[in-house]
Description:
Number of strands of chain B: 2
Strand order of the largest sheet of chain B: 1-2
CATH architecture of the largest domain in chain A: 3-Layer(aba) Sandwich
Number of helices of chain A: 10
Radius of gyration of chain B: 19 Å
Largest interface: A-B, 31 and 28 residues
Shape of chain A: globular
Strand content of chain B: under 5%
Largest sheet of chain B: 2 strands, antiparallel
Helix content of chain A: 25-40%
Order of helices and strands of chain B: HHEEHHHHHHHH
Distance between the termini of chain B: 14 Å
Helix content of chain B: over 70%
Oligomer: heterodimer
Structural class of chain B: mainly alpha
Amino acid sequence: MGKYERYWDVVGVLNMSSLSVIDLYKNYSRKNQSVLEAVRGISFDVKPGECFGLLGPNGAGKSTTMKCVTGFYHPSKGSIKVLGLDITLNLRDARMKLGVCHQDDTLDTDFAMLDQLLQFASFFRIDKKEALLRAERLLKRFDLFDRKKDLVESLSGGLRRRLQVARSLINNPELLVLDEPTTGLDPESRRSLWEILCEERKKGMAILLSTHYMDEAQRLCDRVAIIYKGKIVACDNPQKLISDVTHDKLIREEIRPGITIERPSNLEDVYLLLTGVSLAADLSEGV
Amino acid sequence: MSRLMISLGSIYLVWKRYAYVYRKNMAFAAITTFVEPFLYLASFGFGLGSVIGTIDVGEIQVSYRAFVLAGIVGQTILFQSFFEAAYGSFVRMYYQKIFQAIAVTPVTIEEVLWGEIIWDSSRSSTSAVAVMLIGVAIGDFSITGVLCAIPICFIFGMIFASLGLLVSAKSQSIDSISYPQYLFIIPMFLFSGVFFPLTNLPSLIHKIIFILPLTSVLSVLRTLVLGFTFEWWAPIIIGGWGIILIPLARKAMIKRLVA
Lengths: 287, 259
């Protein structure tokens, strides 16, 4: 690759996307039932170093979209390119550059923490010496090093989550797919994870993030797409979305019996408005 | 995904994962791998065998111990491959979600499933080899026959592992695996000729048993290790089961995992 150290240097020069999803459809055939259209014509792209958020209620199609992006599901229609590689045609090459943290706990409970990372490094054909260096570095970054020999099944939910995110970074991915990564984390671990993600982005790693925490999306994401019933209903910078959808109105809401406050509208208000769920308090008109 | 070439290197990496866990839990693994066949061997081979003495199978006279020992080799391959693939893969797929975790790395889901089948077969063949070596040590089996049987045991193991994987893919819960276990696997174990020659069975039952995979497996094994007459239909039937089960199991599991 010459003077270009990583793929994103090249894609940056060529103005290519780290991830490009075009007109994605995913249908599920259900026994004795009609076909379920989980994703219906979604398109978006993620630039190198960008964090792109997918927001939406349960069953909206976020996880299905992410599973298509990782090549685990085969799209019914449309195309997905990871760092310029078609995921269906160049699955193995694309996945070499992809890190994935599932929504579910997918840690291998038969392994100790360090061995877990080494095991996954082997799937990326990283040689043993380099794998050990990377694994120990990650365990230190995620504050897990002191317990590196502990079996996964002995860990608390929060530690397991941290380990799972650490595992997704073992191959130094250029695109990281995070499906609700901070679920179950305490506030300190959550902030620490945000800092790590910020550092990785500075190096050019793109992130596709799905979350139910609107504050997380507002803080981390350069752009968010709100998915509802398999379609993107809005996609933009969080601040611009708030401004466009709520017109920066103040929200009045009763937070406790007898106590009503007014606060600036936020991404959660946008989300609730666009997904058709009624707000806890009305948008205060004319304020 | 079908356009991808299967990588033997990736399958080996999956196999290595299983081997690592097996080594780590060696004491437990050794008990589950070796104790059961040895118990059958002690009870039926040495216990019942000493009472019965010799039996006639067609025109061949053989000690009951040698006859049942060859049966236990087949039973070991059946049980260890099937149960590891059925229950083990269900746990790995449904509870641990290991298949899903590995299948987003450069290792594909096809390779994960090949790794599973080959591991299950490796484990069952190891047990089968241990039983066969006892047969050689006590003078019941020919060493040449055992050497020829080792790779064949591995193939039989893959077929029964595929059956287990198919059952796992089709089961809604871990309890549902009991249905094929009690309605197919156990009856097959009891009536396919592990403990007695099939020649004296009523004709209708004989015809049904004839098409079961374990019957053919036992026929091939006894030909190799005891020098029984080669029955041409046996490799055809077991080969047919393999041709159907191996792709069917992988297809069913991929459908289950990848919707």
